[in-house]
């Protein structure tokens, strides 16, 4: 997993590349903690380039969503495709975390 971070208005966007799995959990958790401590109110996980997600990756998304909700922050997902999107849908993740087609759509929705 590689995480490239950028900002769009008041949102922090994680461009995640490769696999989102149990073996990458520490990297993801550390990156989330870092942006939370920096005051991030809206985190967007761009999954467009994620090639595989396992149950640990799904669990991390669900746990992060719960933490963000408790802390009055927003978590959004963007660009999940193919089997990654199917896996997220089978786990009902879009019922917990909104899934948008683009970063701009997620930022605009949060601003509305």
TrEMBL record:
It holds the Pfam family STAS. Residues 1-110 form the STAS domain. GO terms for molecular function: anti-sigma factor antagonist activity. SUPFAM superfamilies: SpoIIaa-like (SSF52091). InterPro entries: Anti-sigma_ant, STAS_dom, STAS_dom_sf. Belongs to the anti-sigma-factor antagonist family. This is Anti-sigma factor antagonist.
């Amino acid at each position: 997993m590689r995480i490239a971070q950028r900002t769009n208005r008041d949102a922090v966007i994680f461009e995640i590349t490769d696999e989102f799995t149990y073996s990458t959990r520490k990297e993801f958790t550390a990156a989330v903690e870092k942006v939370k401590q920096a005051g991030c109110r809206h985190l967007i996980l761009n999954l467009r380039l994620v090639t595989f997600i396992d149950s640990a990756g799904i669990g991390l998304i669900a746990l992060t969503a719960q933490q963000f909700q408790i802390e009055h922050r927003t978590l959004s997902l963007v660009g999940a495709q193919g089997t990654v999107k199917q896996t997220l849908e089978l786990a009902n993740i879009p019922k917990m975390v909104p899934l948008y087609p683009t970063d701009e759509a997620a930022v605009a929705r949060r601003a509305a």
